[in-house]
């Protein structure tokens, strides 16, 4: 079922809650692929009812970013959602979501001043604003996010904790193409040649994984080797390659606990992100 109005969705949620149904929520910007479908499948497994939002959120795009050209195909998105068992696709217009004279903002500090946050000023304020609004509208028991946007997961977990929002945030594994490229709606921007070149992101992360598994613990050494690999690819331009604490996102030099290796690389004009979490087990 497609719902475009907040009021209609709220009424439906109310009636479900009266009947004691648990609600899973998957927020998306549409252009759905197997990555999103894996989140929806998990939500379907773990909840009685599942709502997917499809909303290209204007407040999280910078002035020179791809808001206008971001791929939109609600018919196909609806089909993909229904195929994996979602009950409702919520697809509001921007003027349904935002008042023209809105004056509230949500800003998670520190975590958003690094990595993608440093490169895309205001981006996470927009993400936090729309996610908090969606969580207020849907009031789900659990909300599902892709681990591909690792910083987004960390920021949303922090916001939900700080604002006492009553929801479990579930991070789901990255889904990859056969050559390792993380599935992303923005992969559709890549030309054939760029698409081939894009496998350099996961290749560099695999190199890091092997080095870590062999016992390398110097972050700068690992980053240097990863950057060397990426720089071999003529169509690739590094935006960042970092090794950070998985929760605080602060830089790490000697790897002694669980870390996140997030990377952002331009392939031609398309900026792609990927990451890898390395867990150190202490027995
Ligand atoms: O990850 C996304 O697609 C978006 O940032 C989200 C969480 C749907 C908010 O617009």
UniProtKB/TrEMBL annotation:
The reaction proceeds by a bi uni uni bi ping pong mechanism. GO terms for cellular component: cytosol. The gene is panC. ATP binds at residues 29-36, 146-149, 175, 183-186. (R)-pantoate binds at residues 60, 152. Keywords: ATP-binding, Cytoplasm, Ligase, Nucleotide-binding, Pantothenate biosynthesis. Homodimer. Belongs to the pantothenate synthetase family. Pathway: Cofactor biosynthesis; (R)-pantothenate biosynthesis; (R)-pantothenate from (R)-pantoate and beta-alanine: step 1/1. It comes from the Bacteria. This is Pantothenate synthetase. It is found in: Cytoplasm. Its EC number is 6.3.2.1. The keyword Glycoprotein does not apply. GO terms for biological process: pantothenate biosynthetic process. Catalyzes the condensation of pantoate with beta-alanine in an ATP-dependent reaction via a pantoyl-adenylate intermediate. It is an enzyme of class 6 (ligase). Beta-alanine binds at residue 60.
